[in-house]
Amino acid sequence: MGNFHILIDYEIINIGHIVKKTGKILIGFLFSIVFLYLAFRKIEFSLMMRSLMGGKYMIALPAIGAIFISHFVRAIRWQYFLEPVKKVALSRLFSALMVGYFGNSVLPAHLGEFFRAFVIGRKEKIPASSVFATIVLERIIDLFTLLVIMVAVLIIYPFPDWLKDGIYILCLITVLLFLFLIFLKKYSATANRVFDSLLKFIPERFSLKIKLMLKSFTDGIRAFKRKRDYAIVIIHTLIIWACYTFVLYIGFYIFDLVSLFNLSILSATVLMVITTIGVIIPTSPGYIGTYHLLSQMGLELLGVPRSLGLTYAIAVHAINFFPVIVVGLIYTWNEGINLAKISKSRELKKFILEG
Question: How big is the chain by its Cα radius of gyration, in Å?
């Protein structure tokens, strides 16, 4: 799924300091271990294994198709965001996107976002700030869409208080980001003067990073010049999130959860809201642990036993994870990229810092 960490972890853009982020990486792995422990405790392993062995996995083929449709539509939307800067071939954007997803799946700290920006920036000679602007804008739109879905589901479905509190906090953050985006769009000159004044009191190493992020915000807004621009982006975004929900819904049929527990497309939407909250938690690659626990907890709210819920989480995570790994590896190979070397390279550092 969509990765919102570029909004939260923007300071890792200085790849030269990635070694200094070891503590953060270890915390991510620790999160995964803790969440996996919580997911696997009090599990009937015999029931879980029987369920895994008895899954109707051929049903997963449409889900895999939906995953790549969502990625393809995301590439189309990305092309639209980049259009004010440069018209980039859709094939190249999809290739870079898959390299990014591969990077997010196998490397810590969600470096995939920077790899896909690097691939497009290097091949198309686009400044780093312009590429990052489109990715930041993409995440804001995804976050706002999730907010709308959350509010709609919250009205229909009786969530427990702890989950409501988490949704309210995420909604507040999203609304503030959205208002901030409107402010930058309508009063960009005033905003720049205000921020320049405020940043004088902040150490230079931090103020430069903040300025880069603000530039990305303002550059990204350029994609919205006409009213129909909003409609086009909304349609693309709804297709993406519909695909995400469809994947979860197909997962119900793999283990007969529709007939056994009367689950529906609304149930899949509820589960999608709950599991998506997990992407804001800084875990190790692939959201291992957080996705499994939150899927299990979400299904438990829907009446599914813990063991069967974990079975579902393992299977659906694998459906989302392994096809993307394979396709991403192919595109990474075709691009002639060694992620481990590039993550430490001066070329990547220079590309990012030039923004």
Answer: 21
Alpha-carbon distances of 271 from 66, 165, 275, 301, 325, rounded to whole Å: 17, 16, 6, 9, 23
The two structure tokens encoding residue 211: 């300025």
Cα–Cα distance measured from residue 262 to residue 34, given in angstroms and rounded to the nearest whole number: 31
C-beta of residue 319 within 8 angstroms of C-beta of residue 61: no
Q: Number of structural domains, the chain?
A: 1
In Å, what is the CA distance from 31 to each residue of 42, 45, 59, 299? 19, 23, 32, 21
Least Cα distance to 315 among 103, 106, 68, 51 occurs for: 51
Which pairs with CB-CB distance under 8 Å and at least 24 residues apart come from 332-338?
Answer: 332/98, 332/99, 332/102, 334/95, 335/95, 335/96, 335/99, 335/119, 337/99, 337/115, 337/119
> pLDDT tens digits, residue range 267-302?
999 999 888 876 666 566 778 888 999 999 999 999
Please, what's the b/e burial string for 286-324 (b: 16 or more CB within 10 A of its CB; e: otherwise)? Answer: bbbbbbbbbbbbbbebbebbbbbbbbbbbbbbebbbebb
The verdict on pTM exceeding 0.70 is: yes
The single residue listed with the structure tokens 């069967």 is 308
Rounded distance between C-alpha atoms, residue 63 and residue 73, angstroms: 15
Region class of 125: left (phi > 0), else alpha (psi between -120 and 50), else beta: left
CB 293 within 8 A of CB 39: yes
Contact 247, 63 (CB under 8 A): yes
- For the stretch 147-184, pLDDT in tens is 888 888 888 888 778 777 877 887 787 788 778 777 77
Domain extent for 184: 5-353
